[in-house]
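Cast an eye over this sequence plus tokens and walk me through the fold:

***
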Amino acid sequence: MKIKPGLLQVINNKAEINDFVTNSWRPYGFIENEYGLLIPVDDRGAPLVTNESDLRANAFLSREEWQSLDNVVYGMAKQKLNAWADLVAAGLTRPSDVATWYTKWGVSSEQIGANVTMEFETFLSHDRTDRKWYGVPLPIVSRFYSIGRRELASLRRAGQAIESTEAMEATGAVVEKLEDILLNGSTDVTIEGGTIPGYTTLTGRETGAAAAYGGGDFGTISNIHPTFRGLLSALALTRFRGPFVCYLAPTQYWEMQAVYTDGSGQTALQRVLQIPEIQAIKENDLVTAGEMIATQMSRDVVDLEIAISIENRQWESPDASRMYFVVLAAAVPRCKVNYAGDAGIGHVTGI
């Protein structure tokens, strides 16, 4: 077979090659030479399937059609994720692999007070810290869709782009579930007796009604600032002092746009953001109405273990008449408590 160099995709980075091969079920064959990793394509630019017997057949989708679907998948993921994306942006992630079914971490007790002496020879304490271990399952979150060969042929004949609605909706379902697991936890999977706690279900979070923190319903503007102040004060008593990102349901977020009548011209949102420990306040559709979440953005409070980021994968039906796709991610939030059982997460109701 004569390979046309102009139609080859070249990947020069070895780590990128390994990641692409191990994390892909796409029907591509690979040729490695001094230029990097080459993907053979036909005259239309469609990738070629290659098996160990060196038999080749046209892949179902062209390179451009794959790009069109990928743009929808990754674009939708960026739009939908909010609290999840904040953890990624803060660097609070941890790489993993699909062999990991259950991810564990440990927390330790504090060392006793340091020694103060005048001589090296003075006997010093050799006490060690105590450890507690926690863990959560690492699930695969997925949603399937399909494209028929006849449908694709009809679109190509009409000069139309590949239909991407199904890919968009499948991605929306996956990213919404990931966000929901982070905020509300999940009992869909159980490993070693453990499920997945979220911001509003973690035992050890600081939680209570707004009135208990000196505030109340956000429909009354004078309740808003005291609610935040009272919550942060309670978190500070357990040594969690921010920075915090807060998430509210749409109703309460827009109630915070109310303007004070004291002549300051400030909205409640602007005034609360003047509290130094608060980094951001965001609207989130998955937060239950009348509730608020505040999360300290540090690894001892929460991180994400990610084996597979959001991806679009495919396989063909036995008769090659239909291509099946799955948008999936293998990842889990790890909401943590310290040795004393306290968490840097606040969960307020009745706002």
About this structure: Confidence is low (pLDDT under 50) at residues 1-33, 49-58. The domain at 203-302+339-349 is CATH 3.30.2320.10 (hypothetical protein PF0899 fold). The longest helix spans residues 165-184.
